[in-house]
């Protein structure tokens, strides 16, 4: 969980370094992740017939991930960053709702933990949100990004019981990359022609946020469930604020010192709720296995 949180949050630093559109960065990290995982997926032993049977949920998961990037990144252009980040971190609420509708009702302890953590995330960005209220269309796009992330995690939670990490993640990342191409074309976003610094940042995003972040999340989906995995995303603003403070001297807002302990408390309660329900923590050596 810590590896995934730090890896995903590192994109905040890499976006600042890269001289490219956020849509272009999302496209290349998804495509690069698919290509890096393709050899492991090919060696996984999953037959093409089985993948064909899973084609619909794989397409849905990939489209959801691509739409998450497209809607959330567009929301950053139309509303305040605080509003966008606050709304997109509501994804765990939609994961809980989706799990409930699917007949997998989370325990009361887990529901309480999710409520605490999401409340902490809102407090974390609440100060900026009050000073910089967002626009309605941008807010709706950010909310759509949260829903798409929830769909992506719910689909992954289902498929990871049938497919290994690489055999699931590689096709999903490929579909997500393809889904981002129309967004780039409509927005007139260049996908090539970057300088060497930007290509290095893209390479780092593939290894860090995509492989160390999303791929570890996808591995955890098969072990601790989509609700707890979705809560890892709530740590992203915390770690991103810390990294931008270290690398760029941007001091976190005062609300971060209040919201951060609340988020961590909620995550801790969620972990203990999972363990009491019969789950167990994932060893680092097992997380790094992708076969």
Give a structural overview.
The structure is a single chain. The chain is mainly alpha-helical and 291 residues long. It has one domain. It has 15 helices and no strands. The protein has helices spanning 2-9, 11-17, 22-42, 48-53, 55-78, 81-88, 91-101, 108-131, 136-159, 165-187, 196-224, 226-232, 236-248, 254-276, 284-287. Helix 6 (81-88) runs antiparallel to helix 8. The two termini are 19 Å apart. The model is unreliable at 280-291 (pLDDT under 50).
The unreliable regions are 280-291
Q: Which structural class is indicated by helix and strand composition?
A: mainly alpha
- The tally of structural domains comes to 1
| Major β-sheet profile | none
What gap, in angstroms, lies between the N and C termini?
Answer: 19 Å
Mean pLDDT: 85
**Tally of individual helices:** 15
**Strand portion:** under 5%
Order of helices and strands: HHHHHHHHHHHHHHH
Question: How much helicity do the residues have?
Answer: over 70%
Q: How large, in whole angstroms, is the Cα Rg?
A: 18 Å
Topology, element by element:
Layout lengths: L1 H8 L1 H7 L4 H21 L5 H6 L1 H24 L2 H8 L2 H11 L6 H24 L4 H24 L5 H23 L8 H29 L1 H7 L3 H13 L5 H23 L7 H4 L4
Summarize the structure.
It contains 15 helices and no strands.
List keywords for this structure.
single chain; 291 residues; mainly alpha; 80% helix; globular
């Amino acid at each position: 969980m810590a590896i995934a949180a730090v890896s995903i949050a590192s994109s905040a630093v890499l976006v600042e370094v890269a001289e490219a559109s956020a849509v272009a960065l999302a496209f290349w990290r998804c495509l690069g992740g698919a290509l890096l995982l393709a050899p492991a997926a090919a060696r996984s032993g999953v037959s093409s017939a089985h993948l064909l049977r899973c084609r619909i949920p794989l397409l849905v998961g990939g489209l959801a991930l691509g739409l998450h990037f497209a809607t959330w990144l567009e929301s950053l252009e139309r509303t305040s960053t605080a509003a966008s980040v606050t709304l997109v971190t509501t994804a765990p609420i939609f994961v809980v709702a989706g799990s409930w509708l699917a007949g997998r009702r989370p325990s009361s302890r887990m529901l309480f933990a999710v409520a605490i953590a999401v409340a902490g995330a809102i407090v974390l960005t609440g100060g900026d949100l009050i000073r910089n209220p967002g626009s309605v269309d941008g807010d709706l796009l950010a909310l759509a990004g949260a829903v798409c992330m929830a769909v992506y995690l719910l689909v992954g939670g289902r498929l990871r019981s049938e497919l290994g990490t690489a055999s699931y993640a590689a096709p999903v990342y490929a579909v997500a990359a393809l889904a981002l191409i129309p967004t780039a074309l409509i927005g007139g976003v260049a996908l090539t022609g970057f300088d060497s610094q930007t290509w290095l940042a893209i390479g780092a995003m593939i290894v860090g946020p995509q492989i160390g972040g999303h791929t570890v999340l996808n591995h955890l989906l098969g072990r601790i469930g989509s609700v707890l995995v979705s809560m890892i995303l709530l740590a992203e603003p915390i770690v991103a604020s810390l990294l931008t403070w270290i690398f760029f001297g941007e001091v976190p807002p005062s609300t971060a010192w209040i919201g951060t302990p609340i988020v961590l408390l909620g995550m801790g309660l969620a972990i203990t709720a999972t363990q009491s329900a019969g789950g167990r923590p994932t060893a680092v050596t097992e997380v790094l296995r992708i076969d």
